[in-house]
Structure formats: C-alpha cells, structure tokens
Amino acid sequence: MPTAIEETVELPKLSNDEIARYSRHLILPEVGMEGQQKLKAAKVLCVGTGGLGAPLALYLAAAGVGTIGLVDFDTVDASNLQRQIIHSTATVGKLKVDSAEIMLKGLNPTVKVIKHNTMLTSANALEILKDYDVIADGTDNFQTRYLVNDACVLLNKPNAYGSIFRFEGQASVFGTKEGPCYRCLYPEPPPPGLVPSCAEGGVLGILPGLVGVIQATETIKLILGIGEPLIGRLLLVDALGMSFRTLKLRKNPECPVCGPNPTVTELIDYDQFCGITPPSEVGPLEVARDKAVTDLPVVDGIPQISVQELKRKLDAKEDVFVLDVREPHEYKIVNLGAPLIPVGEIALRTAELADKKDSEIVVHCKSGARSQRAALALKQAGFTNVSNLTGGILAWADKIDPSLPKY
Ligand SMILES: Nc1ncnc2c1ncn2[C@@H]1O[C@H](COP(=O)(O)OP(=O)(O)OP(=O)(O)O)[C@@H](O)[C@H]1O
Ligand SMILES: [Zn+2]
C-alpha cells in the first residue's frame, strides 16, 4: 500500500519528547521512526465533530497526526454529550470546533488544529479539502455525504467514511482511484421524505465510538501505507449482535462521478434533510416558527401550523383534534396529552379516527418530519383538514411551555 502522504514531502524530525510520547508506536516495526514521522507530516480533515468525529479526532491527535482540520458549524448541546466525547459539560454552548480544539490540545499540544467553523457546501468544499491528505467523513446527513464523496473523487483524496444508525454502523474507504466511491453503491441520495431525521432516529452512544475508531484506524493505515485498507469493502457493524461483516464492493462502471463517463463533474448541494441548517441560514419553515400566525407555507399540500397558532386555537376552545405520531417510548418522555398513533401505524388505524374525518386535525411529532408524513397519509385516507405542527413538541417546549423537557 502506498502512503497517502505525498512522496515529495520531507518528513519532519521527532523531538525527544515526541520519541518518548510515541514509544509504543516506535517499537512497532510497521510504524517505527519513519511511520511516526509520516504521521507527523500528515494532514487529516475530520468533517463533523459529532459522534463519529469525536473519537476519530481524539485518536488521530493521540497517535501524533501532525495537522488535524475540523469542520463543523454547530455548537455543543447537552444532548451531544451522551456520545460526543470530544466535548464536555463545561463547553456546552461553545462552538464545536473550539470545544474540540480544547480537548485535542489538552491531549496532545504538539498537534496543529485547523478550525473551519463553517458548513461544508459545494461552494467551499474543494477549497477546504484540497490541503489535506486524508478526509474522514463523520457527518450525519446525505447532503454532506455526497458532497464529501464527490469532492474526494474530484480531488483524488481517500475518504475514510463512517455512518451509524441506532445500533448499526458502516465504514469503508472511498474516493481512491483503485476503489469504488459512495455513489458506486448509491448513485443518488434517497428522497428526503424517506430519511428519518437523525435526532428522531436515536443512536446508542457507544456505537459512533466504535465506528469513529475504525475510521481513525483506516486513516492511520492510509498514512502509514500498511495493512489492507477498507478500499472496495464495506464493513457492517451490528452492536446488538456484536457482529462485524464485510461486503465486497466493486467500482460501478456507470458511477455518475467516478465512472468513465461521469455526469457529476462539479459539486451539488442537495436539499438538507437532517435538521442541520446552521442558525445563520434558517429557511422559511424555521423563520415561520417565530412568526405569530397564519402565513405559514403549505408543504406537499399539507398546511403547516405554528405552535403559537395552535395554542391560540386551543385557548379559544376551537374544535381542534391534536394527534401525536411519535413512538410510545417518546410519549413517556414528554407529551401534550394528545392521543398517540405512531406514524408507522397511521394507515392501519384510520378507523379509530373515523369521527374526525371532517374535523381540523393537527398532527405533531418531535420536530415536524414524521408528522408531515403522517399528515400526508391521513390526507390520502380522506381526511380533509389536516395540518402539521411546525417544529413539533420541541417547538412547543421552546415557545409555549418551557417547563417541558427537550430530548
Ligand atoms: N455540511 C456540514 N458541514 C459542517 N459540519 C457538518 C455538516 N453536516 C453535519 N455536520 C456536523 O457533523 C456532526 C454530526 O454528528 P452527530 O450526528 O453525532 O451530531 P449532531 O448533529 O449534533 O446530533 P443530533 O442530530 O442528534 O443533534 C454535527 O456536529 C454536525 O454539526
Ligand atoms: Zn463511484
């Protein structure tokens, strides 16, 4: 395996302190002095400093990767700490890149941390990625996954990819000339409606640790040029069964970006579908949450109603039927006292709502994505007056009843 470091780079010397710090690496013949110097020369970009990015960046820093770039636009939220161990209680509210830098520098002050406090988009991705030797995508949404994949293919940079959902994870190395890319597997992103929002899906806190560490391992192997990288293989991790499987992947000759006749020749911004809009770029729905009332958009034929408007209707004792479409375990965390029919059961249980056919129905979930699907299902089943509560119960807790817990 050739190293991911450009062969022309002159390898930096190690100080005596560094020799002491990395002694357990130096005595491994597969790493040795030269390998450790390659690590010091290496520049790795971690896209996202969340669940995957946290262990990834920490292990890269511990291993002595000389330059670690961090891209993230978000701030640390208390709900991140269940898995994002690069952040801490003391840095809740701080920018994630600043919070991560504190931990990385504390662990290894010799590492250079470059902070990109921005959302990676088609406008800046090539410019940001071009200076790094290896890219490690630890983000949580399809838009960025395709963006990083395409940018890596266009720049010919390896992408140590990882992703997780609930109890399962995946890892691979994409973007190399020899191997397939993410689009070889999935040429186009799924339609937004089919993707559960990350915050709604849930994840076992340890799982991103497991997968992020695999990404870090692949990154280090790529830098050292040792072992068998996950090029052309997709590792599937099942934390509940604690099983690891690898699937062989082939380069797809019809791949729209790395195939011989590419149709994707520049970066694309797909619609965002994982609640990742940075505060500075809030879209119409988000803005609507703060507006008092009526001029909310209609999405796919479903009127969107704000929490303020629903509160006004309830206070005025208007005849509104509120329906919660989350899961029972979420209902136990917090609820508004509305009846519960989980979104997946709506189509089968419309008979229970037979007397509501012509009533005004407001559907809500945690943040508004599932309830939009439920509202569409109700509309298809013949309910004539269904609207979707924008922002869900989280918006209700934000704007109407701050005593409610947010999860
Ligand atoms: N295009 C992007 N540019 C920069 N950072 C991104 C981009 N897309 C996602 N991220 C960041 O990647 C990280 C993904 O990690 P993760 O899903 O564990 O965290 P989260 O988004 O805070 O979690 P949750 O959605 O459950 O609140 C987040 O910190 C997010 O801000
Ligand atoms: Zn491809």
UniProtKB/TrEMBL annotation:
Instruction: Give the EC number.
Output: 2.7.7.80
- Subunit-structure text: Homodimer. Forms a stable heterotetrameric complex of 2 MoeB and 2 MoaD during adenylation of MoaD.
Per its UniProt record, what InterPro entries does this chain match? Answer: Rhodanese-like_dom, Rhodanese-like_dom_sf, ThiF/MoeB/HesA, ThiF_NAD_FAD-bd, Ubiquitin-activating_enz
Q: What is this protein called?
A: Molybdopterin-synthase adenylyltransferase
- By its UniProt entry, which Pfam families does this protein fall under? Rhodanese, ThiF
Q: Which organism is it from?
A: Tunturiibacter gelidiferens
Report if keyword Aminoacyl-tRNA synthetase is assigned.
no
Domain (Rhodanese) ranges: 316-405
Catalytic activity field:
[molybdopterin-synthase sulfur-carrier protein]-C-terminal Gly-Gly + ATP + H(+) = [molybdopterin-synthase sulfur-carrier protein]-C-terminal Gly-Gly-AMP + diphosphate
Entry keyword set = ATP-binding, Nucleotide-binding, Nucleotidyltransferase, Transferase
